[in-house]
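Sorry, can you check?
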Amino acid sequence: MNLTRFTRRLEECRKRWHRRTVGYVLEVARIVRAARKAAKDERRWGEWIRKETHMNRTTVYRYLRVSKFLKANVDSKHQLVSLSIAKIYALSRLEPELVQAFLRSGKAERMSDISFLRMARRHQKQSPPRVILPNLSKSLDSAFVRLEQSVRRWHHSEVPMPPDVQMKYQSKIQSIHRMLERIRRASAAAM
């Protein structure tokens, strides 16, 4: 099935609505959801998003999340109407009980977008990074950079390192070396 009719609908939506409004987000979510259903294949739908919509996939998923959030909170519509789209994005990531507490308190309306986003980020449930090679490598590289900087800073300082502290850090480095050796052996055995 051809998805160009959904691309045309998106273009009409962009002409009709300002992109920073809830109406625009809801209309795009409705179009994208219909295109997903028509595509009948997640890969084909993702390809359509990448090639035709000129939107980042993350943005598409954010719009879908906001749409779902607003449907779930229809009873709070009068409180949500006065909020900016940035606050609605932030609220859509929070637990429902917390959302209701924010809306009942009136805090969301009184705060600036930036203050509200900072506060919401503290309450947001953090998902752990995916355990994949790039994430693991990046994490290990940043740890080594921090370690090298700290050792270099101590080396150039006038503060002597007591022998017991030296032994403690050497022991930790040797422990890391042993772990890396176990990982190397396990990786070699897996291949």
Q: What stands out?
A: Residues 163-190 form the longest helix (28 residues). The chain has a mean pLDDT of 86.
